[in-house]
Amino acid sequence: MASPRFQAKSEVLVPAGLSKQSAALRLLSAERSEEIFPILLEEIVNLGFPKAMILEVDFELGEVKPTASLNFDKRELDKFRASLWASENPIISVLQNLNPSILPAESSNGQSLYAYPMVYRSRTRCWEAERQRRKDCLAMQNFRVSRKLPFEEQVCAACGMRAYATLVVAKLGRNTNEAQLREFRNLAERANGYLARLFKVEHYYNRMRDMEVTISRLRAVMQSMPDPVILTDNQHRVIIQNRAAERFFRFPEGVSEGGKRAVELNNLLFSAALSSMVVSATCRRDGRRRSPV
Predict the structure, then answer these.
(1) Which of 53, 112, 249, 275 is deepest in the core (most CB within 10 A)?
(2) In a domain, 130, yes or no
(3) Could you tell me if residue 181 is inside a domain?
(4) Residue 105 is part of which domain span?
(5) pTM
């Protein structure tokens, strides 16, 4: 999701005193999710924080590790690796409680660090949950969570998307004030909103790509079958048919007018029988749904 690590820069790419609007435009210009974190880290440094990094949760391995940084060296980053299930670790506590806070000095290697959690969350349901009128959309559940974030349930039941969880950490400067911390929080929250949208778009794109691969494989298997095979949609329109089906419904060469009508009648009877089977199956399914318990 994010690039491994950025080299320390002696100067930032954007002039000091960057306005809120300019920061928002930079984040909005990102076209992929991995572009968000580089912009976010540069903007945090521009706010007056000497160093910044991203700690990302790996749900499969159950660990938290740094995946992007600005002005942190490798030795410093290695000290922030943690197990996802070490609930006594202040880093994990900030993630679980979704509460931005200053990390204790003993857990941050003597440095004064401010941590802000970013998780997949939204006020609106995903498309699948909206279409099916479901209330188990993960984005909304994470947005409304009142207790600790359930790490083991970070897959959306409606669309099957696996969520992300990261921690934005910045070193406090000598003169860091509450106004800068407020700007930090606003910036991170704005970045998280854009990141959630890009993540969802990429999820749909990957699903469409996988579907195209599946259809391509299915078509190859169908074409190799000797029996006629036809796939239709809910309106009984033909989507795919193999070569055997094309030969079956094609008029033989040199056939008489009566033969053509016989083939057309055979095709109509086949389509009617197919439609009847679909309607019968639908009625039986609806009957089972409406039958009293």
Answers:
(1) 53
(2) no
(3) yes
(4) 20-120+164-210
(5) 0.65
- Tokens standing for 37? 């974190």
Examine the domain organization and report whether 185 and 253 are in the same domain: no
70-74 contacts, C-beta under 8 A, 24 or more apart: 70/6, 70/8, 70/9, 70/41, 70/42, 70/44, 70/45, 71/8, 71/9, 71/45, 72/8, 73/8, 74/5
243 in a structural domain: yes
The reply to whether 61 falls in a domain is: yes
Same domain? 248 vs 200: no
Same domain, 90 and 234: no
Distance, in Å, from the CA atom of 231 to the CA atom of 235, rounded to the nearest integer, reads 11
List, for residues 96-114, the tens digit of each pLDDT value: 888 898 887 655 555 689 9
The CATH number covering residue 100 comes to: 3.30.450.40
User: Tell me, what's the pLDDT at 281?
Assistant: 59
The band of 41, judged by pLDDT with boundaries at 50, 70 and 90, is very high
pLDDT digits over 4-36, tens only? 343 443 333 344 444 455 777 888 888 888 889
